[in-house]
Amino acid sequence: MVQPAVNRRKRLLAADMDSTMIKVECIDELADFAGLKAEVAAVTEQAMRGELDFEAALDARVALLRGLDAGLIDRCREERVELMPGARTLVRTMRAHGAYCLLVSGGFTRFAEPVAVAIGFDAVASNRLVIEDGRLSGTVEKPIVGAEAKKAAMLAAAEARGIGTEAILAVGDGANDIPMIEAAGLGIAYRAKPAVAVAADARIEANDLTALLYAQGYLRSEWVEA
């Protein structure tokens, strides 16, 4: 990956969560507790490939979870969510060198907020499941954090800190990450769907997330190990 020396080290990181900062798609794992994983995962795959409208697909998948005990969200997170290798080192190293790190997810706050804390992000933008009487209502609070909302959250965070787009690093794997990847100074497709790989400045297929530190010119001795 050839890059200019100017602005090589980015001042803002905008990162997707599911299948990027963590190894799973949370909605698929949650659906497993309702016996609907195969059905929901098929729709997730289509949405991430850009074959379905993300927001409509999210509404449809969440509707299938209506009546699920909300307590299963925390159980699912504890049992199924595993951080992607290199996630902590990437975020903590960038923050140690002055970067602002934003987790921006089309997934759910009950997953995203604990994940953000575990990894070390400054802030998180994600969707909220509506819960009524301790059970999922089958709906998501509006507006949905979809593709354009992800991009908007990234740009708002940059503007608030006087950071130009050339100093932003965005990373994701699904079609709903394309707008923010295209808007960032360095957009990375991480083990991504084909359409995302085409849209990105570069893609990572095999290495872990510390590859993004090498891309920014960080020396191994500068890493903040998790």
What does this structure look like?
This protein is of the alpha/beta class. It has one domain: 3-Layer(aba) Sandwich (Rossmann fold), CATH 3.40.50. 40% of the residues lie in helices and 18% in strands. The protein contains 10 helices and 8 strands. The strands form 2 sheets. It has a 6-stranded parallel sheet with strand order 3-2-1-6-7-8.
The DSSP helix count reads: 10
Average of per-residue pLDDT values? 96
How would you classify the helix and strand content by structural class?
alpha/beta
Share of helical residues = 40-55%
Instruction: State which percent range the strand residues make up.
Output: 15-25%
In N-to-C order, the SSE pattern is EHHHHHEHEEEHEHEHEH
Quickly name the level 1 CATH class: Alpha Beta
Low-pLDDT stretches: none
Instruction: Strand order, main sheet: write it out.
Output: 3-2-1-6-7-8
Sketch the major β-sheet.
6 strands, parallel
Give a short overview.
The protein has helices at residues 26-32, 37-48, 54-63, 71-80, 87-96, 109-119, 147-160, 178-183, 194-199, 211-215; strands spanning 12-15, 100-108, 123-127, 129-132, 135-140, 168-172, 186-190, 202-204.
